[in-house]
């Protein structure tokens, strides 16, 4: 007869083995889903053709007109994807919003004008809820872009441009839950948004207009938004003595004094480091020109704040506390590392 302790150990080992096997099965299942969706995206990429260009052209023409918007519509899971696509487009400079096809049939159709373009999503292309909206676009000659996997569907047949999704299996083991199909829709929406962004040449500064809040808005703050303006800088003329410079240094309390010529053009900077290097009994009587460092580090006013942080922290263990800001070749201000960090640009 085996000791009781051995029996318990055997039972625990068997339970652990079953748990490990279960965990392995879960990993296999999860990876299988990702592989299925990756295959779908690869098939989608290979199938893209001139119809994608036509869809981008329609939307871009609408944007150039200055009055229209892109209406994105869908039902069920396609509706959820439509909301995300509309949000992505709006945040990248394409006026877009989501309209629920069911609500459109009960009054929201009036939100859609003849200057708009409609992008409608439906994997099957045969949802009955879409029929009124399809009819409305045809009645008022509103451009319709259909995104579907069924080229023979009502949506495909009545669309001006069809973005055809490749027929690939859903990642769901029963082949029922929208998985791979919605992933392809989401990705194709991203492709539209980025293609339109590229066409309009959206800069990071323009992008910030659509993202003024949160971490993204902070990261896109410009140097000009963060800098201390010229009028508030610790300035001394190039003919000044160090006793005057030290008074300005103490009064402004910015850790430096900037030396300018009679026209206000930058000549140099005096930092705490410069004072330490030239410490002597006659320091106060010496000219600022003798003490200053020429060619201080500068940055353009239009640069991003994160670029300034990068410059000030580029060398490990050696930090610059500030940079002088230039605009159109002239001194415009100063940006300090502490101000950048307070603004969240860590």
Order of helices and strands: HHEHEHEHEHEHHHHEEHEEHHEHEEH
Which sheet architecture does the biggest sheet show? 5 strands, parallel
CATH class of the largest domain: Alpha Beta
In whole angstroms, the N-to-C terminal distance is 67 Å
Mean pLDDT level: 86
Q: Tell me the CATH superfamily of the largest domain.
A: Glucose-6-phosphate isomerase like protein, domain 1
Radius of gyration: 32 Å
Count of discrete domains = 2
SS elements, strand count? 12
What does this 3D model show about the protein?
The protein is of the alpha/beta class and 346 residues long. The chain has 2 domains: 46-202, Glucose-6-phosphate isomerase like protein, domain 1 (Rossmann fold), CATH 3.40.50.10490; 223-342, Roll (CBS-domain). It has 15 helices and 12 strands. The chain has helices at 4-47, 50-65, 77-91, 101-104, 131-139, 154-158, 180-200, 204-209, 214-219, 223-226, 242-252, 272-277, 288-291, 305-312, 337-342, and strands at 70-74, 96-98, 117-121, 144-148, 161-164, 228-229, 235-237, 256-260, 266-271, 298-300, 322-327, 330-336. The strands form 3 sheets. A 5-stranded parallel beta sheet has the order 2-1-3-4-5, sandwiched between helices. The protein has a 4-stranded mixed beta sheet with strand order 6-12-11-10. A hairpin with a 2-residue loop joins β11 and β12 (330-336). α2 (50-65) packs across α7 (180-200) and α3 (77-91) runs parallel beside α7 (180-200). The longest helix has 44 residues, at 4-47. The protein is elongated, with a radius of gyration of 32 Å. The model has no long low-confidence stretch (mean pLDDT 86).
